[in-house]
Specification:
- Helix content is 54%, strand content 16%.
- It is α/β, with parallel strands linked by helices.
Length: 368
Amino acid sequence: MGAELISRIIGMIVFAALGVYWGQNLGEVASENSILSFFAVWQFAVGLGIVGAMIGLLITPYITVRPLSRLFRTIKQISSQTLFASLLGLVIGLIIGALVAYPLSLLPTPLGEILPFVGVVLCCYVGISVSLMRQNDLFSMFSNVSGRTHLPIGSSERGKKSDDGHGSVLLDTSVIIDGRIADIAHTGFLPANLQITRFVLNELQYIADSPDSMRRQRGRRGMDIISQLQRDSSITVNITDMDVEGVKEVDEKLVILARQMHCPILTNDYNLNRIAELQGVKIMNINELANAVKSILLPGEVLFIRVMQEGKESGQGVGYLDDGTMVVVENGRDYINQQIEVTVTKVLQTAAGRMIFGRPEIQDTGNL
């Protein structure tokens, strides 16, 4: 039996009992009235009991099971950091409220009876609100303090984390728009705490509102990717309000913030990659990860490739592997739109990716 069916049965019984009780009282009152005296007390009880049972059967899930299910789903989607920050704010609010309640209780009636309760509720609300608004700053402060306690004073590595992959990671706009981060995060190869700054969100919103249809589509895809990451229970996505005063460029803000937080930047922007490395900031580049997991081919190996188009040099043909790796075929222009056997002659690793050079060995007899 499902929880909803059980709640309907229990609700039907409870509301039926209430209907019988109210029916008896109503019947006793009606018996004293000559106009309604033709109905017996038991008739009122049975009638209202049936009505109560029907009402309980219909509305019980909407006031019990379904609100609880929505509450549990909401709690499941909330990150552990947010829940901890809420509890911390609640405890602080209760402590301050208890300290404030005593002097307020000494006020004359009715203020001395009402204001203590109002003060506790207000302190709890303010405590939770402040903790939630500044949760990222609080956790960054705790992380830095905990990092300092395990390293000698004066060490240049003091407070440094995330080199072992257990700290926070700042996300760049380009990696959010790219979209591959959602699949990578789901596999568990990323740290569990992903930080998205408010100025990155603003840039993403600016792209989503662009008059250019292509940029607008990319920006909206980035918004969808963030929503997908937030729904993934295996990682924590935090929207932080931390900013860098006096700096306008988003890339420069990310680099400065990453140095302050001692955490890497996740990006696939080549320029940001170079700038960050020059300033000693650790970079996690998705393009480098994609190149690293591609299959390794050595000179002399044979593969089958479909020549798709002409190359830049005279006589060259170009094809692609299943993972998108470009294969340049010497004298391959004559085999365009054909599947041919290619022997690898050279593998070149560039900043843009891996390129494979080869020469045709056996031409397939049929056009594809």
